[in-house]
Design goal:
alpha+beta; eleven-stranded mixed sheet; single chain
Length: about 475
């Protein structure tokens, strides 16, 4: 198959959404499969995207006083056993190291599935007085969870993430930090990833193991399935008691501290792909796109074309991630397809006729619109187009979310909505675990969260049992 046919090789999302996703992540060189089953190789293009996402989050965390540090990859088994709920929640996915240096270890070491236990052990050592608080720490690292079924970015045995772990003097301070981080997750997803989310609290069943409360942002993919895109947990004093994290309080008495943990991961890249992508490939939101614009010279062998393309690239590259593709091994048509598939927000064409007229042509990836731009106005116009694309991508995703969100007053309406228009279903819920389990058993839909905005359902009874209900919940099938 020639490279001119690469885009045609992407399976239609209407034909097979799962295959479409696999085609997109591999053909755009975001990832490749590694020799170890379930582990992915993040290629340069994919890692550049992750770096841009990481950079935004990192700046936002630091604005709130959070500092980065690093904790060990390996955790003693005894540490996990200190917190029963925690170890039970992760035990099926834990990978163990039992031998090192040719000798069997006296104690098994787990490869971190998350770092609460080892971080708590250090906090108990560091914390002495209320004057030491709060501890506001985060680490960027990888974790290993031995998943049975994997898919690049969405669910892999190893993935990259950040995990924040804070310690506070009071429960209220811990709760405020939990919600502050949750709002950062929401803002970054909506403002930078152009991905609208539902914000709310997880049910007791879906809570992080050992947490007092878990909050999440939930996004909706093009196929109508939900993606949990970030979680923030108020751990109360559960872990601090298990790990003896105490301090001398303001009244000179010894007190247990309160803690939080929170994380987002490379799973967000899967969300970007499935919210914005189409049958031509990726669509990158400009704010986090590895390449925001690509300059493609037309008839580049003709005198003056390459020089003009270089000048244009240099002018734009002062403030934007813009590259010049002057590789003469490929035709402009092939390049158009290649960068369209990679989701580059703007293609910039310049050829002999454009140079004569003192212009270039911008082509938007999101709409396909062609815009003729005077060369002296290119930088200003590029800024305007970047903003327009970012806004349009968010509004398009928000429209999709609204169109794929239904309301159900009973299970007949619930199942009909799932069948005819897969997506989120808003429904009243009594708060009973049994009803939550039965809904999943019957429909495959899980309770994604109880949204902070409790509006949009007139019914006063639980969608499953018909008993009085006060909570509106979002349900969906999910990745």
């Amino acid at each position: 198959m020639s490279k001119d046919n690469q885009v045609e090789a992407i399976t239609s999302m209407e034909e097979d959404f799962s295959r479409w996703y696999t085609d997109v992540v591999t053909k755009t060189q975001l990832v490749d499969y590694s020799p170890v089953k379930g582990f992915m190789v993040i290629r340069a293009y994919g890692y550049a995207l992750w770096e841009n996402i990481q950079s935004v989050f990192d700046k936002e965390f630091k604005k709130t006083g959070v500092q980065n540090c690093y904790f060990p990859l390996l955790i003693p088994e005894s540490f996990l056993n200190k917190e029963k709920e925690h170890v039970e929640g992760f035990s099926p996915e834990v990978a163990w190291v039992t031998e090192a240096g040719g000798k069997k270890l006296e104690e098994r070491l787990c490869i971190r599935p998350t770092s609460e236990t080892i971080i708590c052990s250090m906090y108990s050592k560091w914390l002495k007085s209320y004057r030491d608080l709060p501890f506001l720490y985060n680490q960027w690292c990888s974790v290993v969870r031995w998943e049975k079924t994997t898919r690049p970015f969405l669910r892999t045995a190893e993935f990259l993430w950040q995990e924040g772990h804070t310690v506070h003097e009071t429960f209220e301070e811990a709760q405020n930090k939990t919600l502050e981080i949750l709002d950062i997750y929401r803002r970054v997803c909506e403002d930078f990833l152009a991905m609208p989310v539902i914000v709310g609290e997880k049910s007791e069943k879906e809570r992080f193991a050992g947490a007092h409360a878990t909050y999440s942002i939930e996004a909706l993919m093009h196929d109508g399935q939900a993606l949990q895109s970030g979680t923030s947990h108020n751990l109360g004093d559960h872990f601090t008691k298990a790990f003896d994290i105490k301090f001398l309080g303001r009244d000179n008495t010894e007190q247990y501290a309160y803690s939080t943990s929170w994380g987002v991961s490379t799973r967000l890249i899967g969300g970007i792909i499935m919210v914005h992508g189409d049958n031509k490939g990726l669509k990158m939101p400009p704010k986090i796109a590895p390449i925001q614009g690509v300059v493609i010279p037309i008839a580049q062998h003709k005198e003056g074309v390459i020089d003009a393309a270089k000048r244009l690239t240099q002018a734009l590259a002062v403030d934007y991630r813009v590259k010049l593709d002057d590789n003469d091994s490929y035709t402009p048509g092939w390049k158009f397809n290649e960068y369209e598939m990679k989701g580059v927000p703007v293609r910039i064409e310049i050829g002999p006729k454009d140079i004569e007229k003192g212009q270039c042509v911008f082509v938007r990836r999101d709409t396909g619109e062609k815009i003729t731009v005077a060369l002296e106005e290119a930088v200003v116009k590029f800024a305007e187009v970047m903003e327009a694309i970012q806004s349009n991508m968010y509004q398009s995703a928000l429209k999709m979310l609204h169109e794929k969100t239904g309301v159900a007053n009973n299970m007949e309406e619930f199942e009909k909505a799932l069948r005819e228009n897969p997506g989120f279903i808003k429904a009243k819920w009594c708060g009973c675990r049994e009803c939550e389990d039965k809904i999943k058993e019957l429909t495959g839909a899980t309770l994604r969260n109880v949204p902070f905005e409790q509006e949009g359902v007139d019914s006063e009874v639980c969608v499953y049992c018909g008993k009085p209900a006060q909570k509106i919940a979002y349900f969906a099938r999910a990745y």
